[in-house]
Amino acid sequence: FISMNVSAGNIGLAMNATHYIHFFLSITKSQIKKINGFFEDKKLFNPRGKIFLDKSGQIMLENSKKQYFNLNAYNQNGHGINTIYNFQYGNIFLNEIDNFGYLSKRKNKYLKFPSYKYGMPSSSFSFKYKRPSLKNMTTETLKNLINGKSSSSLKTAVKVVKILNASFKSNELKGLTCNLSNLNKKKKFPWA
User: Fold this and answer.
1) Quick one: pLDDT at residue 164?
2) What letters, b where the CB count within 10 A reaches 16 and e where it falls short, cover 97-135?
3) Staple 24 to which of 14, 69, 91, 121, CB 3.0 to 4.6 Å?
4) Pairing of strands 122-128, 100-106
C-alpha cells in the first residue's frame, strides 16, 4: 500500500476528515510523522449549527512506513467523494456517492518493469457496491459498542484529534510540516 487520496466536495476538514484519517490509521497501523495543512479562510455553512466552524482545504500526512494520505476538500469542490488507494502496481478507485468502484492492476508479466513504465498493460474491472444505510450503520456501531467490539479505541480517537490539531498548526505556519509533538493542548477549536 502506497497512498490514500480523497478528493471530495466541501465536506469539512474536521468533521468528515476524521473518518478518513481514522481509516488511514486503521489500515496502515503506523505512526504519523509529517502533517501539512492548507486551509481556506472562507467561513463555511455547517449543518450542525452556527456555533460550529469547519474549514475547507487540504490535509497531507506521511507515516513512518512512507505511506501517504491526502485529502483535498476545497470550498470550490461542490460535488462528490472519490477515494483512490494506490499500490505499487495498481489502484482502487471508489466513487462514494454513486457507490461505484474501479480496480486496475498491472498484468503479472509486466511487474518486472520500473514504476516510470506506468502505462503497461493491465487488468481492470468495475463494480457497484451497496452502502449501508445510516440507520443500519448506527445500529451496528451501537451494538458493537455495547458488546465491547468497537472498531475504534479512545487512543485512536485522540490520535485523530492530535492530527487535526497539527494540521491547524501547519496551516497557521503557512503549510510548514508539523508532527504530533509540541501541540497546543489547551487550544479550543471551532469545530469542537
Assistant:
1) 94
2) eeeebebeebeeeeeeeeeeeeeeeeeeeeeeeeeeeee
3) 69
4) antiparallel
In degrees and rounded to multiples of 5, residue 95 shows phi and psi of -95, 105
> What phi and psi values does residue 63 have, to the nearest 5 degrees?
-105, 180
Counting as low any pLDDT under 70, the low residues of the chain are 192
Contacts of 178 (CB under 8 A, 6+ apart): 34, 35, 36, 37, 166, 167, 169, 170
Q: Tell the residue number behind the cell numbers 466541501, with chain if given.
A: 10
What 3-state DSSP class applies to 68? strand
DSSP state of 178: B
Predicted local confidence at residue 47, as pLDDT: 78
Question: In 10 A of CB 66, how many CB atoms?
Answer: 10
Tens-digit pLDDT profile for residues 102-157 = 999 999 999 999 999 999 999 999 999 998 888 988 888 888 888 888 777 888 98
CA 144 to CA 99: how far, in whole Å?
A: 25
- Which residues touch 145 (CB under 8 Å, ≥6 apart)? none
How is residue 186 written as a grid cell? Answer: 489547551
For residue 192, what pLDDT is reported? 59
Spatial separation of the C-alpha atoms in residues 22 and 25, rounded to whole Å: 5
